[in-house]
């Protein structure tokens, strides 16, 4: 990392900012933080020191234009996807569109539902093109694109309320090279994006990060108690005038629910998740609502 | 004034979010606070770099980390991203106590909105950028002026309340954009009325009329003679060092006379100051030595036949060694250009070698004498007095500042000493700059500080959004005892 160590903060052309974060205990290698506008990526790569440096440089080089590419097609990417909708042209936009297309039958969805995962995927692809890595993860605000070389695995933990500090693991599993999933995404009403549902968090494993991202959104929307008095909703565009969700009602607050209510809401989400599993769109999902956790049927995890 | 109920269109990035009051944009970095666009970036923590450490070393122990953000006195909470409070009398966003060698120190961190602020720019070049008092423009709007030049450098004074809020709306916006870019170490293009176009970026070489400046002059023409006269002795009969300020002539200069250099009959144009030193041999410009000439012979009158003789060898050179020519007088005592002998070439290279790299430096200047102080203490004048007496240390994003004497809290800071993107803006327009006041806890209590808002720095937990930044090695550690400037 010699070349990186010279730079305190690696400022790239334009707005985007890159900097190295303290190394993790496990790898001894620093992580790379890339930020531009609303995009924050935390990137971990393991492998030879040169390979990691090459990968980080490739990530930076690819990152510089990402936001501009997306913004160039933003109006189209904020439109609901139907077979008639025009196709975007950008690489990332195409990943987004491809991920949400099979989900459109379950309701209104725009390519923006997959934006975080698609960006993570694109950056990971650029890193792997630069050279071989043992393990790599591009984390775009909880939507993560993963790379595992043969023999490698990744331990994944799910925590509640990370914003309060402390680690309260409510679920953990290990992903190996043999697993087909390379995307991990979490959606819910506490993130930056709006949710139509009431789930605190839905974590999805899928083949790609874009698919995991879009599916997590759809499953989180399905965890719901329609017209429940304890659920406060507002039209999305009342909060964010430019929201791709228009005047759809998005969840602002949820009161304390009874166990029966939680079970009912989660059942709707699990049914959706099981359906997506059966269609082969996702690998598995964990759903979380006010301390209750459900996962997709084990039979799906063949 | 800002309309507190208005939706703001944020132009920080191409997403261009419309942000309703009280809410943040898609990035969670910019928010609409009562009609003002404010930065709500994660707090930047400066970590004292170990003397031997690399810049990005974390001081958090990885094994038995207990989840707290700040371990002790080797982490300093800066105001970058601290946000501001409105109205002013609300306590500053973070009032943080750190134990330093047994003394409880308090750092009050806030981001100040500076309606009175600007940048002072030093551009290392002798090229004429514009006359003193000429208007400096960005995107066609007046944003400042050329001020008195310094040794080897041209000086600009940009911003200030007159351009920010005292002029047209567009003028204010462009001024704010330009100040923000310069303060955040970005490049801007400036044009000077009846002068040059210059691209300025802190810590980088200036680009004057599309040409990158590489060297500062070694000194004025007279100083150059004073430095190099012995090295020319015997190799040449006359040397003229062309400079917009003072052009030096070896045979007339005290430096040449003392070495026994004989008169050559040279006659200079311009106004003679003292022997061998001439003012105004030409007009200012971007040619030889910051003058407007491209042919150096144009500053000479015919040689005086009383002293001149055929065969006299003359070197003409600029004060950066960038332009030079070698001439020999013919039988009509006219200088004729000839190829330069290698030993003279060496001396020209020596001039170039002694020139320092030309850079732009940008100092942010702001006055924190106003209501911002009310976020620190309920008796604002005591803060001013405490800063004035050096009891309270003022830092800007953890960087040392120069505090102007006299009333108020007016300070200057080298923007290169701050972490990147430390400055923000509000659409007033005004700049938002981080500012930290550090003082012993007891003194803070005595000045009427908000004691019930003091948090132990070690009690800040990971719930507070933050990022770590390395302490710049040349900056003094803000929590260490202060030495007076």
Features:
heterodimer; A: 302 residues; alpha+beta; T-fold; 10-stranded antiparallel β-sheet; 14 strands; globular; disordered N terminus; B: 485 residues; mainly beta; 11-stranded antiparallel β-sheet; 7-stranded mixed β-sheet; 7 helices; 34 strands; disordered C terminus
The percentage of residues in β strands of chain B lies in 25-35%
Largest sheet of chain B: 11 strands, antiparallel
* CATH homologous superfamily caption of chain A: ApbE-like domains
**Low-pLDDT windows of residues of chain B:** 42-73, 83-94, 481-485
Organism (chain B): Acidisoma cellulosilyticum
Protein name (chain B): 6-hydroxynicotinate reductase
What does this structure look like?
- The complex is a heterodimer of chains A (302) and B (485).
- By secondary structure, chain A is an alpha+beta fold.
- Chain A has one domain: ApbE-like domains (T-fold, Roll).
- Chain A has 9 helices and 14 strands.
- In chain A, the strands form 3 sheets. A 10-stranded antiparallel sheet of chain A has the order 1-2-3-4-5-6-9-10-13-14. In chain A, strands 7-8 form a two-stranded antiparallel sheet.
- In chain A, strand 3 (31-36) and strand 4 (39-46) form a beta hairpin.
- In chain A, helix 2 (49-63) packs across helix 6 and helix 6 runs antiparallel to helix 7.
- The longest helix of chain A has 20 residues, at 259-278.
- Chain A starts with a helix and ends in a 7-residue tail after the last strand.
- Mean pLDDT of chain B is 79; it is low at 42-73, 83-94 and 481-485.
- Chain B has 485 residues and is mostly beta strands.
- The chains are: A alpha+beta (302), B mainly beta (485).
- The A-B interface holds A 5, 8-9, 11, 15, 17, 19-25, 30, 33, 36-38, 67-68, 71, 74, 163-166, 192, 238-242 and B 7, 12-20, 23, 25-29, 54-58, 60, 62-63, 67, 185, 419-421, 461-463, 467-470, 472.
- Chain B: This is 6-hydroxynicotinate reductase.
């Amino acid at each position: 990392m010699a070349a990186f160590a010279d730079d305190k903060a690696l400022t790239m052309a334009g707005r985007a900012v890159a900097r190295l974060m303290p190394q993790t205990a496990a790898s001894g290698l620093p992580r790379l933080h890339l930020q531009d506008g609303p995009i924050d990526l935390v990137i971990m790569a393991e492998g030879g020191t040169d390979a990691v440096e090459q990968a980080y440089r490739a990530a930076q080089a690819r990152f510089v234009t990402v936001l501009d590419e997306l913004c160039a097609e933003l109006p189209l990417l904020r439109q609901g996807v139907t077979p008639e909708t025009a196709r975007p042209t950008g690489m990332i936009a195409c990943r987004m569109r491809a991920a949400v297309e099979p989900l459109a039958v379950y309701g209104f969805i725009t390519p923006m539902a997959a934006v975080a995962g698609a960006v993570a995927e694109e950056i990971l692809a650029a890193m792997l093109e630069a050279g071989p890595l043992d393990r790599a993860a591009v984390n775009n605000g909880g939507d993560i694109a993963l790379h595992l070389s043969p023999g490698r695995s990744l331990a994944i933990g799910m925590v509640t309320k990370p914003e309060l500090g402390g680690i309260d693991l409510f679920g953990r599993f290990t992903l190996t090279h043999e697993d087909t999933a390379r995307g991990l995404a979490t959606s819910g009403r506490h993130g930056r994006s709006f949710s139509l549902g009431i789930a605190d968090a839905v974590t999805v494993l899928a083949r790609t990060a874009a698919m995991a991202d879009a599916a997590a959104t759809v499953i989180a929307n399905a965890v719901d108690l329609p017209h429940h008095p304890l659920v406060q909703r507002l039209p999305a565009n009342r909060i964010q005038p430019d929201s791709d969700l228009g005047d759809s009602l998005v969840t602002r607050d949820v009161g304390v629910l009874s166990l029966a209510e939680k079970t009912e809401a989660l059942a709707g989400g699990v049914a959706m998740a099981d359906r997506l599993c059966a269609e082969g769109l996702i690998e598995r999902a964990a759903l979380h609502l006010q301390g209750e956790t459900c996962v997709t049927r084990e039979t799906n995890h063949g | 004034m800002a309309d507190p109920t208005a939706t703001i269109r944020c132009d920080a990035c191409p997403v261009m979010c419309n942000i309703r009051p009280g809410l943040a944009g898609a990035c969670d970095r910019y928010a609409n606070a009562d009609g003002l666009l404010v930065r709500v970036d994660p707090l930047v923590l400066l970590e004292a770099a170990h003397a031997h450490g690399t810049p990005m070393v974390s001081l958090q122990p990885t094994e038995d980390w207990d989840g707290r953000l700040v371990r002790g006195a080797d982490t300093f909470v800066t105001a970058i991203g601290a946000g501001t409070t409105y109205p002013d009398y609300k306590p500053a966003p973070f009032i943080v106590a750190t134990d330093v060698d047994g003394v409880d120190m308090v750092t009050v961190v806030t981001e100040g909105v500076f309606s009175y602020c600007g940048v002072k720019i030093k551009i290392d070049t002798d090229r004429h950028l514009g006359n003193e008092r000429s208007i400096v423009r960005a995107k066609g709007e007046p944003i400042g002026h050329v001020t008195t030049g310094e040794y080897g450098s041209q000086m600009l004074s940009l911003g200030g309340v007159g351009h920010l809020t005292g002029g047209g709306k567009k003028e204010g916006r462009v001024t704010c954009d330009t100040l923000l870019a310069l303060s955040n170490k970005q490049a801007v293009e400036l044009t000077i009325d009846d002068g040059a176009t210059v691209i300025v970026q802190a810590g980088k070489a200036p680009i004057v009329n599309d040409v990158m400046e590489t060297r500062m002059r070694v000194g004025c023409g007279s100083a150059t003679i004073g430095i190099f006269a012995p090295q020319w002795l015997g190799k040449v009969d006359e040397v003229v060092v062309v400079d917009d300020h003072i052009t030096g002539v070896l045979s007339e200069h005290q430096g040449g006379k003392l070495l026994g250099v004989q008169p050559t009959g040279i006659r200079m144009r311009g106004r003679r100051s003292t022997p061998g030193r001439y003012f105004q041999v030409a007009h200012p410009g971007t040619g030889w030595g910051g003058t407007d000439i491209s042919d150096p012979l144009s500053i000479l009158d015919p040689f005086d036949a009383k002293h001149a003789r055929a065969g006299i060898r003359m070197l003409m050179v600029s004060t950066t060694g960038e332009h030079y020519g070698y001439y020999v007088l013919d039988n009509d005592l006219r200088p004729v250009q000839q190829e330069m002998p290698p030993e003279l070439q060496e001396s020209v290279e020596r001039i170039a070698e002694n020139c320092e790299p030309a850079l732009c430096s940008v100092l942010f200047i702001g006055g924190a004498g106003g209501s911002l102080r009310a976020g620190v203490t309920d008796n604002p004048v005591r803060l001013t007095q405490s800063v004035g007496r050096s009891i309270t240390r003022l830092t800007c994003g953890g960087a040392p500042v120069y505090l102007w004497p006299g009333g108020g809290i007016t300070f200057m800071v080298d923007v290169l000493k701050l972490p990147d993107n430390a400055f923000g803006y509000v659409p007033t327009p005004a700049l938002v700059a981080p500012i930290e006041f550090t003082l012993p806890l007891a003194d803070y209590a005595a000045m009427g500080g908000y004691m019930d808002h003091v948090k132990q720095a070690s009690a800040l937990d990971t719930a507070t959004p933050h990022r770590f930044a390395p302490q710049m090695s040349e900056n003094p550690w803000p929590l260490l005892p202060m030495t007076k400037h």
